[in-house]
Amino acid sequence: MRIPRAVADTWRHEPDWLDALPQLVAECADQWSLALEEPIDTPHSLVIPSGEVVLKLNAPSHAEADNEADALELWGGRGAVRLQARDDARRALLVERCVPGTELWSSGVDEAEVIARLIPRLQVPVAEGHGFTLLAAEADRWADVVPRRYAAAGAPFERELLDAALDVYRTVDRSSALLVNQDLHGGNVLRASREPWLVIDPKPLVGERELESSGLLRNAASASQLLDGWVDLIGSVSLWLDVLEGIGFDRTRARGWGVAHNLAWAWDERGGWSLEQVAIAHRILKAP
Prior knowledge:
- The strands form four sheets. The chain has a four-stranded antiparallel beta sheet, with helices on one face. Strands 5-8 form a two-stranded antiparallel sheet.
- The protein is about 45% helix and about 15% strand.
- β9 and β10 form a beta hairpin.
- It has two domains: about 90 residues, 2-Layer Sandwich (Phosphorylase Kinase, domain 1), CATH 3.30.200; about 180 residues, Aminoglycoside 3'-phosphotransferase, Chain: A, domain 2 (Alpha-Beta Complex), CATH 3.90.1200.
- The chain is an alpha+beta fold.
- The termini are far apart.
C-alpha cells in the first residue's frame, strides 16, 4: 500500500504509526470487506476511497480528530457525510463517499451562500454527558500555553495580537453547548449526490457558535482571489464577517475567535511559530 508523501511528512514524528499503517489498512479492509483504491494525497490523515465509501485513519497524536466520528454520528448525515462504521482502537472510520466530490472552493459556486445554509444545520445543541472536548477547556489551556510560547520565542510579534487573543480565551462562554467545527471552509465541503454539499473532516468542540468563524476567516485572510474578483485580504475577512453576522453571529466575537483560535493554531510543536499564520490572525484583527 502506498502511503502518500504528504502523510509521511506530516507524521514523520510518529514512525511507529506510519510503519503500522499497512497492517491497519489491511485489517480495516478485511473487517469491512473493502476493495481499496489509490489513497488521496492529503496531509493530515490517510484517506482511501473504496467504491461508495472512504476509509480514513487518524494518527494517534492528531488530537483535533479525536471526536470526528462522534460529530458525524451526531449529525446523522444532515449536512455532513454519513458515518458508516468506526473502529476507535485503530482510529479508523468509514464514511460516505461524495460524488463527484468537487471542493466548494473550486466549484464556481458562491461559497458564502452554501456555508451560510450549512452552519445552522450543523450547530446542534449537545446533551449533557457528551464526550466532546469543551471549547472552554481549550480556551483555558490556550490562555496558559500561548503567552508562554510567546515569551519563550522572545515576543516574535506585536503584543496587541496576543492581548486580543487572551481577552477572548478569558471571556469564553462556559454555558454554551453547541457543536462547533474548528476547521470549516470551502476545502472541507464537497459536492455530493445525496445532498448538494456535504461537510467532511470536522474538528469538533462544544461551545460558543462564533468559534466556527475561525476556519472561514483564516482561509479568507490567506486567499488572494474571490469569486467576484480580486480583493484586498482584510476586505475578504470583512465580507465573511458580514455573512456570519447575517446568520446571527456576534460580529465582534466572531472576529475575536478568528484571532484567538488562529493564533493558538499558529504554533507547531516541531516548527514553533508560523509567522504566516500569525500574519493571518493580524489581518483578522484589523478587519472592520
